[in-house]
Fold this sequence. Notes:
Keywords: Membrane, Transmembrane, Transmembrane helix. The chain crosses the membrane at residues 85-101, 107-125, 180-199, 205-223. This is SdpI/YhfL protein family protein. This protein has one domain (5-172). The protein is 61% helix and 11% strand. The protein has helices at residues 5-9, 20-28, 78-91, 93-100, 105-144, 152-158, 165-171, 177-201, 207-232, and strands at residues 14-15, 35-38, 42-46, 57-63, 69-76. It has a 5-stranded mixed sheet. The longest helix has 40 residues, at 105-144. The radius of gyration is 21 Å and the shape is elongated. The two termini are 31 Å apart.
Amino acid sequence: xxxxxxxxQKLIEVQKNNTFSNHFICSIKKDYKIYGSIEKxxxxxxxxxxxxxxxxxxxxxxxxxxxxLTKVNDKLNSFAQFSQLLFPLFFxxxxxxxxxxxxxxxxxxxxxSVFLFLTFACYLVSRRIYLFNKxxxxxxxxxxxxxxxxxxxLAKKHRSRILDLETEEKLExxxxxxxxxxxxxxxxxxxxxxxxxxxxxxxxxxFFIAIPMLAIVGVYLYSDLKMIFKxxx
Length: 233
């Protein structure tokens, strides 16, 4: 069964350009409609959900001269990419300020290390949400136009790496060597940050730093464990 441009156009509920400002507005609004931009040989669609928040995917459907689907790509929206940098700078700026106030090498190294880890954790959380959601959301889009997303013949015909769920699962194995090594480092460090936040920062009144730090660590651990147990089912 061929997928045509008109099939994908039917998904769009609100037509908007794929721009930073529109993704910013979409991210802060609780509007769960399907947005899209239509070009001559390409359609971009996206949808914010309660799970993804601002970390939602933008799917690009590309068509040939006869308006038949030939390729599907996805990427994190532009505002979410920007917020991966902005969020830690805004919430953890006091750590950087502390690092350079009354400069001491030990305090400086501790503050910079914590800041870099939290920045990395923000990135991992955003990427986890993005990866966790993108396959299910694309499947939902295809179900809306009565196409089975796990149809291997369709996936092969259109060379869509997203539709090939078996390949996607192999790429995202949660127990690869690199991911095990990452968890050996991150899990104890997360535990240390939790203990430090509860017993070190909160008693000293550093709520502005402690609460966002604990929230990010908690979301990272929750999303990572959820991905692991989901794969084992």
